[in-house]
Amino acid sequence: MREVAVLGIGQTKIDEHWDKSLRLLAGEAILAAMQDAGVERVDSIYVGNMMSGSANFQQHLGAYIADWVGSRFSESLHIEAACSSGAASFRAALMAVASGEVEVAVAAGVEKMTDSPAGEITAQLATAADADWEVDQGISFVALNALVMRRYMHEYGWQKDDFASFSINAHANGAKNPYARFQEPISLKAYQRAPMVADPINVYDASPMGDGAAAAVLVPAEALQRSNAKPIIRVLGSGAATDTIDVQSRRKPVWLTAAELSVKQAYKQAGIGPEDIDLFELHDAFTIMATLSLEAAGFAQPGQGPRLALDGEITPSGRIPIATRGGLKARGHPVGATGMYQIVEVVQQLRQEAGETQVENARIGMAQNIGGSGSNIITHILGI
Hints:
Layout: E1 4-11, H1 22-37, E2 44-48, H2 52-55, H3 61-68, E3 75-79, H4 85-99, E4 105-111, H5 118-125, H6 141-156, H7 164-174, H8 188-193, E5 196-198, E6 201-202, E7 212-220, E8 233-242, H9 257-270, E9 279-281, H10 287-296, H11 305-310, H12 327-330, H13 335-350, E10 364-371, E11 376-383
Parallel strand pairs: 2-3, 2-4, 9-10
Antiparallel strand pairs: 1-7, 1-8, 4-7, 5-6, 8-11, 10-11
């Protein structure tokens, strides 16, 4: 297998893009990534998306988007893995290039959610849960996460406000990211006063929906020559694992086994451990998921994830910076695109292009994208 590098990145601002179609959003990100990479043609395109068929009445995104970006006749596939569709597209592109079958691949993620009523989107998000054993019982996706958070608080003795620092950090970072959905910091008081969505999850524990797209161009690392202007960003490790789609069937509902397995695969490939990671773009769709990801990835002992946030260890200057560009909480969570936004943000950090939220001397970054309530988790490690 060949070593693979990320040569170019592109993204759109996450917003309510009433004036842009699904293909326009994807096209902006892909063409920006190709321009950044300095390439005019690609061999393959892999498009991550969760709900285009229901929210936009458009499937068959491979051909739909390849034609739009001037890559008619290239291989192009639509990849769906719920909220981890973006990372799944990146992993597909990675394996294609690493195998030697493809020389230049684009991994993209796109989602357009705001054209549909909020109730319809809520119902569509619930399709990432188990239709028989969860959804048919009337539970929403946010309610599932609320049950996990309540159980976690019960088992380890944490209080609701102990999770506030995750949201405060994300919004502080998002305020300095021009691509973020929300660009205003929040206070502890604002967190405490936020309306409840599904107890104990309030508005500031949950990520917002939005429209957006992000993309990256992948090539064989051996074909590149190091330049002072743009360091070579190598993919050091990639891991993927699944768990039961329904939470009730898991041996321990407050532990992300798929995250633990996928991150161990990525660590082994990269030949490193958690102590070597300079930043971690985790999947903070809910504050409880940020907590569980930190623990599963080896940054905290079981039940001690909130301590990292309370002690300021997750800020850009902390021991393990997370959500450095706002995370899902403030940057936004256009579900099928989220995994690719995480990749783009890790590359920005490694290139020293993250502006006011730059992590000093960042050389190794990790991105972890979660599908469902922990049922499909994909982890990538990038480094220079």
